[in-house]
Amino acid sequence: MYIDQNEMTNWLTEMFTAAGCPKEEAILIATHLVDADASGHPSHGIVRVPRYMEYIKEGTVRPVCAHETLMSSGSLRLIDGLYSFGQVLGHHVVAQAKQMVAQDGLALIGLRNAGHLGRIGGWAELLAEAGLVSLHFVTVAGSRIVAPFGGREARISTAPIAIGIPQDDGNHFILDFATSRVAEGKILVSQKTGTKLPADAMVDKNGEDSDQPVTIYGPSATSSVPNPRGGEGAIQTFGQHKGSGLGLACELLAGALTGAGTNAHDRPFCNGMLSLVFKADDFDTENAMQQEVQDFIASIRDCPPRETGKAVLIPGDPERAKREEVSVKGVSLSEAIIDQLKTISDTLSVPQPDGLS
């Protein structure tokens, strides 16, 4: 089923408002989730709504955002998100980074105890739109669901990384990936919709490759909100020891250094993020950087493709193409996800969009 992007955003906004979020914060949450689907990353989008509603019910995430600045010194800042919604805190980090770069030329911001931050590439995109380069290292404390290289039990989180480099034409370089073989959200989408996963997406309790969601969800796989720590298996890292090494680095940089904590210990679920942000122009002493970036990107796109008719892309291209498609067709959702949203909507006494009634 296809639903207009704005209509979907408005529907989710009303749901989160009814669940206790201030309207302006509900808009930020809904916009970020719908944009994830519209960008081709449903793993970090609308499929998360039932889980987010559970967080509010359980009291594990504050519906009304609160945060505290623990340290601020020049270009350094450390923020405690106090278990508020990550989408709201992410916008706060972006705003703080812009302000700090304007004043000091550099922002190094640590964020701890944030609710799920969603698609990290979204924060790199917002900063690139402001002409800023950014690097983001993220960990998920309390979410031990990935096995380190050579292991068969979960020890680390999916530990995403995002890098944004602005281009004058708006086609920014946005690299965004989990250091796990697949994001947990992709396994959730697979469980809900039956989409296929890579054969080596996970490792089961016997050390064998697995593509079955039950490997990490266990008996909770068929519930409305599967528990990614309910099974005996784990997600694998991408690139064997290389992805594993990056995942460990995220645990240390975004977990140990920010105070969010690592998965060496049992902790409440939260995201930690370490963000480095600066203005590219400050490095451009010869006024040649932007041309060099454009020339390099052009050289990559000009590379002869392995498959005839398939272009060589740069990070950020697939998301831009998907947004163009969604602007015409609308956001695509499976019947299973729609049914869950309808149930939540009815429970909160929120009217459904006309096309669903």
Task: Explain this structure.
- The strands form 3 sheets. The protein has a 7-stranded mixed sheet, with helices on both faces. A 3-stranded antiparallel sheet has the order 9-8-10, with no helix packed on it. It has a two-stranded antiparallel sheet with strand order 1-12.
- The mean pLDDT is 95.
- The chain is α+β, with helices and mostly antiparallel strands and 357 residues long.
- It is globular, with a radius of gyration of 20 Å.
- 49% of the residues are buried.
- The longest helix is centred in the N-terminal third of the chain and has 19 residues, at 86-104.
- It has a domain at 2-61 and 332-347: Malate/L-lactate/L-sulpholactate dehydrogenase, four-helix barrel (Hypothetical Oxidoreductase Yiak, Chain: A, domain 1, Orthogonal Bundle).
- The chain is built from 11 helices and 12 strands.
